[in-house]
Design brief:
Length: 203
């Protein structure tokens, strides 16, 4: 909780007509979202909240103790209202699920506004690779190119990556596979590599 008179940390960005990459974690990194029931609950509320606040959801993933979203807003007021509703409603419902009324659930969120199309699509790929990064899915050949500072995903490895990510129900990856087709999603992986520095996100 923010102390009165103290700035938010991390400081937040409030801009109109902007794409936002938002990450929020469970307090103290606890695995409140470890069960599928908990992740379905968060997913359903995410869908309801973006509809109610007219937000264009571009990518998302829900993990055992945090989530990532990429979305576009027209007015900065949408961001504040959306996060207040989404975090408030999911906190109440998760506490009902776990029998822990009044427990604090979410800590402060982190935001970033992509600076370019390349930045935005690298974030898009980063969001979708998270189930592997956090060990919820296993792809032994995923590795880092230290010289260029990116995750290495070759054309020979892409079929395995693709098949694996399709099995994860709590992300937008299956939707974009249907929308873009295999060739389209493959080109996104190859054209916009994920910076390996993002692997140290603290969650």
């Amino acid at each position: 909780m923010r102390e009165p008179g103290k700035p938010y940390y991390p400081p937040h960005i409030y801009l109109d007509n902007q794409v936002y990459f938002i990450t929020a974690g469970i307090i103290d990194g606890k695995p409140f979202l470890a069960s599928e029931e908990a992740r379905w609950l968060v997913r359903d509320e995410l869908r309801a909240s973006v509809i109610d606040y007219h937000i264009e959801l571009m990518a998302w993933v829900i993990l055992h103790n945090h989530y990532h979203t990429l979305f576009r807003i027209e007015r900065k007021e949408q961001l504040v209202a959306f996060l207040k509703r989404f975090h408030g409603k999911t906190a109440i419902e998760l506490n009902k699920l776990h029998g822990t009324p009044g427990r604090r659930v979410w800590r402060n969120y982190w935001d970033h506004c992509p600076r370019s199309e390349r930045d935005m699509y690298s974030i898009f790929n980063y969001i979708h690779i998270n189930p592997i990064k956090h060990g919820l899915l296993t792809l032994p050949r995923l590795r880092v190119d230290e010289e260029n500072g990116v995750y290495v995903i070759s054309t020979t490895e892409l079929p395995d990556l693709h098949s694996l990510l399709l099995t994860y129900k709590f992300s937008s990856y299956p939707f974009y596979t249907r929308k873009l087709g295999l060739e389209g999603i493959t080109n996104v992986w190859l054209d916009y590599p994920v910076p390996s520095s993002w692997g140290r996100d603290g969650f």
